[in-house]
Amino acid sequence: MPVAEKKSIAKAGPPPSDNSALTRVTGLFVRTRDFLKDVRSEMRKVVTPTRAEARATTTVVIVTVFAFAAFFYVVDSGLDWVLRSLLHALSSAQ
């Protein structure tokens, strides 16, 4: 006969105390302070691109946009022609 296993329920966090509201408020300030310190340290790593880098990336974006526009124009025109031909063939078959 198998032995019955005991199942326990795990409780999250420390047990509540009489100063839990104070602990939550001070914890909020500590977390906020730590977050702002992290933001400040990450912002120190940010590098502003040079004028030449900004011009180069802008050129790449503009060329890419026009290339995709041309591609979608060709695909759309091709599908339009196929559908018109199909509808014309179906309507004249009747």
Describe the structure.
The chain is mainly α and 94 residues long. It has a domain at 67-94. Helices cover 70% and strands 0% of the residues. The protein contains two helices and no strands. The longest helix has 42 residues, at 51-92. It is elongated, with a radius of gyration of 33 Å. 0% of the residues are buried. The mean pLDDT is 86.
Question: How are the SSEs ordered, and which strands pair?
Answer:
Elements: H1 20-43, H2 51-92
β-strand amount: under 5%
What is the helix content?
A: over 70%
Low-confidence runs (pLDDT<50, min 5 residues)?
none
Strand pairing plus helix content: what structural class?
A: mainly alpha
What is the H/E order? HH
Q: How would you describe the shape?
A: elongated
- As a whole number of angstroms, the C-alpha radius of gyration is 33 Å
Number of discrete helical segments: 2
Give the integer mean of the pLDDT values.
86
Q: How widely separated are the two ends?
A: 79 Å
The total beta strand count reads 0
Q: Could you give a short description of this structure?
A:
The protein is an all-alpha fold and 94 residues long. The protein is built from 2 helices and no strands.
Features:
94 residues, 0% strand
